[in-house]
Amino acid sequence: MIEVHDKGDGVYIIKIVMKEVHTLDVPELKEKLQETIIDKGIKKMVVDLTDVKMITSSGIGIFLNINQSLKSQLRLAAANEEVKKVLDLTKVTSVIKLFKSVDEALTSF
């Protein structure tokens, strides 16, 4: 479901290893992400969306929630055109920065 990569200094890359983030997946994904933030002491997070081909609005809600808990230190990276369109339509990209690559997102901190 997720892969966790420690970049040091409280910065983590979380790769979502799911093709589709549906409403039914949201509670489990949200719980895993929140547990990871607490367990690892995450201060800044890049969510790698490379594998995600489709996402629902409730999936997007997770990102808004996490962004708030991380005091706007969340970045999204590597979204495909379909996911990017949903993020733009829901105005998530006006709140959370979206980057073309994980490396670009990391250098934004």
CATH superfamily: STAS domain
The top level CATH class name? Alpha Beta
Summing up helix and strand content along with how strands pair, one would put the structural category as: alpha/beta
* Number of helical segments with 4 or more residues: 4
Number of domains: 1
Taking Cα atoms only, what radius of gyration do you get, to the nearest Å? 12 Å
Gap from first CA to last CA: 25 Å
**Sheet having the most strands:** 5 strands, mixed
Q: What percent of residues are in strands?
A: 25-35%
Order of the strands making up the biggest sheet = 1-2-4-6-7
SSE map:
Blueprint: E1 2-8, E2 11-16, E3 20-21, H1 26-40, E4 44-48, E5 54-55, H2 57-69, E6 74-77, H3 81-89, E7 97-99, H4 102-107
Parallel strand pairs: 2-4, 3-5, 4-6, 6-7
Antiparallel strand pairs: 1-2
Helix pairs in contact: 1-2
Short précis:
This protein is of the alpha/beta class.
What would you note in describing this structure?
- By secondary structure, the protein is an alpha/beta fold.
- It has a single domain, classed as Transcription Regulator spoIIAA (2-Layer Sandwich).
- The chain contains four helices and seven strands; from the N terminus they run E-E-E-H-E-E-H-E-H-E-H.
- The strands form two sheets. Strands 1-2-4-6-7 form a five-stranded mixed beta sheet. A two-stranded parallel sheet has the order 3-5.
- A hairpin with a 2-residue loop joins strand 1 and strand 2.
- Helix 1 runs parallel beside helix 2.
- It is globular.
- 28% of the residues are buried.
